[in-house]
Amino acid sequence: MIPSILPTYNRAPLNFVKGEGSWLIEADGRRFLDMGAGIAVNALGHAAPELVEALTEQAGALWHTSNLYGIPNQQKLADLLVDHTFADTCFFTNSGTESCELAVKMARKYHFEKGAPERVEIITFEGSFHGRSSAGIAAAGSEKMTHGFGPLLPGFVHLPFADHDAVVPAISENTAAILVEPVQGEGGIRPLPDACLKSLRDLCDSHGILLILDEVQCGVGRTGKLFAHEWAGITPDIMMVAKGIGGGFPLGAVVATEDAASGMTAGSHGSTYGGNPLGCAVGARVMEIVSDPAFLEDVNRKAGRLRQGLEGLVASHPKVFDHVRGSGLMLGLKCVAPAGEVVSAGLTEHILTVGAADNTIRLLPALNISDEDIDAALARLDAAATNLTA
After folding, report:
1. Mean pLDDT of 189-196
2. Which residues contact residue 32 at a Cβ distance below 8 angstroms, ignoring those fewer than 6 apart?
């Protein structure tokens, strides 16, 4: 008999009932060190006082009105995103998946309005993850994502990861945009080299196509910059945002330049819940905190501490770990042992990590994780690896 919750997840046998900072508390009282942060969502940890205050204040005033009317918190968050990024305008969604849908529509509508309706193809890369909607799985193109869900939405061209030589011949008179994650998350914490990102920007400029960045997982301070593309010194035309922007509340956004968004006029897109007062109250507070240069400086300091410790684990456990990769507090441990076994061994030591492709485990802690919790995480991972090889 099918369970009342559709069985699309292989869930760990854990039921968390409370969170405190970087810790989750199971129904039976056990405490787990959360190094996944809800898959890079809980940017400020669990039950962050600043976010609880923002949400509670708004919840006592107004929950929902719809986008038929102005929403003050939405305007506040939009202004913060425009002030702190390349963007001129924002549209708010409830998730990264919804942000992907709009980014695809926006790119195609841009060329349609410019008199080039044939420009509908979007170039994407192997190992990518852009959500689980029809457009998202078609964009990623992997067998795991698409099996059994055909016919797929057409108009996507899939290329090998970080193979710049393959991009140029793939561009044609039908190309609308290039869509890429500066750091692949689901794909195994694989950063795109800065030189590749710069070259993609140059190619888009020279061919009159748009550069779309998916920063759903790597954005909002995760890599030590407010957004990961800043490390390469470039800007996109359209960017997808979600996960950390809501600090745990469902929230996403598409931000874009005025030119890239020029085809999106009244009636061309919409969302019932997107940009609701509750989500935007939390998102605005997240942005105020995470965009502070001192906060980002501390993210980089903590990232250095964590990475140095992980490098030590690789050296100490060569039968378990191969190498460390990633940026900021978006780090991956490429494993020698099966990654799933490493995640399970971590559960025994009461530490939560997140599996990924390429036999990798993800470490995506709260951006404000304490030094003590970093050290505790390293000790628990050390114990997990020791148990695997005992």
Report:
1. 96
2. 14, 16, 23, 24, 25, 26, 347, 350, 351, 352
DSSP-based three-state secondary structure for 225: coil
User: In the chain, where are the structural domains located?
Assistant: 50-290, 293-324+342-354
pLDDT in tens, 143-190: 999 999 989 999 999 999 988 899 999 999 999 999 999 999 999 999
Q: Which residues pair with 122 in a beta bridge?
A: 156, 177
- Secondary structure in 3-state letters for 300-335: HHHHHHHHHHHHHHHHHCCCCEEEEEEECCEEEEEE
pLDDT of 203 over the 90 cut: yes
Which tokens go with 83?
């002030």
Rounded to whole angstroms, the Cα distance separating 220 from 319 reads: 34
Give the phi and the psi of residue 388 in degrees, each rounded to 5.
-65, -30
Q: What is the pLDDT of residues 244-285, one digit of tens each?
A: 999 999 999 999 999 999 999 999 999 999 999 999 999 999
Q: What is the CATH number of domain 50-290?
A: 3.40.640.10
Q: Which of 255, 256, 252 is nearest to 273 (CA)?
A: 252
Full DSSP string of 255-304? EE-TTTTTT--TTS---SSTT-HHHHHHHHHHHHHHT-HHHHHHHHHHHH
3-state DSSP assignment of residue 380: helix
Calculate what percentage of the chain has a pLDDT beyond 70: 100
- Taking the C-alpha atoms of residue 270 and residue 169, their distance in angstroms, rounded to an integer, is 36
Indicate the residue type of 145: M
Q: How far is CA 8 from CA 3, 4, 151, 341, in A?
A: 11, 12, 21, 20
Task: Show the tokens assigned to 19.
Answer: 């969170």
Average pLDDT, integer, range 327-333: 98
Closest CA to 367 of 240, 223, 231, 232: 223
The secondary element (H helix, E strand) that includes residue 252 is strand 252-256
CA distance 62 to 386: 52
Distance CA 47, CA 25 (A): 12
User: Band of the pLDDT at 18, cuts 50, 70, 90?
Assistant: very high
